[in-house]
Amino acid sequence: MSAPSFWQLAKNSVVLWVGLMFVPIGVVFIAIGITMGLEELAFAKHGKMAEAIVVDRSLQKADFDKNPSTRYLIRYRLMTEAGEAVERTREVPVEEWERLEPGSALRVRFLAEASDQARVTEESSWPAVAAFSALGLIVVGVGAPLIAFAVRDMLRQSRVWRTGTTVSAIVTAIAPSSTRINGVQQWEVRYAYTDSNGRKHEGRSNCMPQDEAKQWHRGDRGQARFDPRIAASSVWLGNPTPARQELSANEPHHPG
Amino acid sequence: MIGSLFALIGLASLTAAWFPAWNEYRHGKQFAAKGGVALGLVLTKSRASAGSVTVLGFTKQLENYFVRYRFTVPTGRQIVGDARVTPEQWAILEERGPIKVRYLPDDPETSHVSGQESRRSRLETLIFTLLGAGFTGLGGLMVLIVLKKDRPPT
After folding, report:
1. Helix axes A126-163, A14-46, angle to 10 degrees
2. Distance from A215 to chain B by nearest Cα, in Å?
3. CA distance linking residue A12 with residue A213, whole number of Å
4. Most CB atoms closer than 10 Å: which of A79, A132, B30, B67?
5. What is the dihedral of CA A195, A198, A204, A209, to 10 degrees?
């Protein structure tokens, strides 16, 4: 019986897939946080102050289709150091919108090298930077240990498959596992075996569909392989044609 | 002990369900008796999803409609109010347009506009009422049983 590939083990590891879903989402959040943080730092270090003139103000009304809420917008013009006039539109609170009539002055901060990036002086992205980074770290903090745990277990299984001692195991139960894949309940085979020193151990197979699990019955004899160094660590090999046998003592033997 | 706790939880749920309704009823009476009227200005309109309801396989998306308005009382003070309104009223009202506001002269923060709906939905009130009635009934029954057991025979 050949050892399963790393990919086959990965396919059966629900924990790994959950971790792999979490980590990229967290990384995206952290990346957004870092990008915003760098932009904020750039504004703090190299931002230039300028007087802008409100050229227009408008109102985007709420409706039943596209706009869920009213937006108060102002359009302002500022001159960059290069003498270039740049116009920007920004949403502002209603009180500020009422105060900023066309022609009135407004203090803005802009980056000389990116004049299209301008912002009203009192605006700060640090709360958003903190929120995105914290959320990203939490999500990665959940996902990364799951991946580490799953990879460690896959390496263990692979090692036991390759170097373990094959032993006859008795099926003690066929039971639903705690895992569901796409809403389908997964099952597991629970088994018992005796190591070379005569100590009894129990193990659980990887998750499998109910049909596959139901081929086994309590008392059937299958094959397991255990780690000679840590006899409690084992993998379920199963058997192509499970046959019900007596619950009796079993003898370990090496593969091949 | 558990009976008293249940009864307390039940009474708290009943209070949570009916105190806002009683408050609205009381304010309604006050608006009718001594309410002032002002012409306000609609500042913003917004709508937000309020979940969905499925009946016999037919799903309906629910939405809440809000308006923010500002009005000035005779003392010159400007008051900003928020209200949940019916979709019909929401459609009629326009940003920067007028809105008729009723308010209590003694407490102008308490105001009311046409088409205003209760802040709490009927479903929330029903859930809290059922929970409250259940817990109060069960808790009261448990307290009664304990009291009956402890009463010395006459």
Report:
1. 150
2. 38
3. 14
4. B67
5. 80
| Within a domain: B25 | no
The verdict on ipTM greater than 0.85 is no
Q: How far is A57 from chain B (nearest CA, A)?
A: 13
β pairing state of B78-85 and A85-91: unpaired
Q: Which residues pair with B39 in a beta bridge?
A: B100
Report yes or no: A62 at the B interface, CB cutoff 8 Å: yes
Q: A56 pairs with which residues across the strands?
A: A75
**Is residue B30 assigned to a domain?**
no
Q: CB of B107 within 8 Å of any CB in chain A?
A: no
Question: How many angstroms separate the CA atoms of B131 and B133, rounded?
Answer: 6
3 state DSSP class of B67:
strand
* Domain of B85, in residue numbers: 2-14+35-150
Question: Is any Cβ of chain B less than 8 angstroms from the Cβ of A93?
Answer: no
- Cβ under 8 Å to B: A residues 30-59: 59
Average pLDDT, chain A: 85
Beta-carbon separation of B47 and A68 below 8 A: yes
- Which residue do the tokens 């249940």 mark? B6
Q: Which pLDDT tens digit goes with each residue over B60-85?
A: 888 899 999 999 999 999 999 999 99
pLDDT, tens digit (0-9, with 9 covering 90-100), for A124-179: 778 889 999 999 999 999 999 999 999 999 999 899 988 899 999 999 999 998 77
Average pLDDT over residues B105-121: 86
Torsion of CA A67, A73, A79, A84, to 10 degrees: 30
Query: Does the CB of B72 have a partner CB in chain A at under 8 Å?
Result: no
Residue A69 touches chain B, beta carbons under 8 Å:
yes
Q: Is residue B27, in this structure, part of any structural domain at all?
A: no
Both tokens of residue A101? Answer: 């009539």
Q: Reply yes or no on whether the pLDDT at A12 is more than 80.
A: no
> What CATH code is assigned to A164-256?
2.40.50
Select the residue of B87, B91, B95 nearest A70 (Cβ to Cβ). Answer: B95
Nearest-Cα residue of chain B relative to residue A65: B47
Query: Which token pair is A119?
Result: 């912002």
Name the residue ranges covered by the structural domains of chain A: 1-52+94-159, 164-256
Q: Is residue B29 in some structural domain?
A: no
Domains: count for chain B: 1
With beta carbons less than 8 A apart as the criterion, state whether B6 and B138 touch. Answer: yes
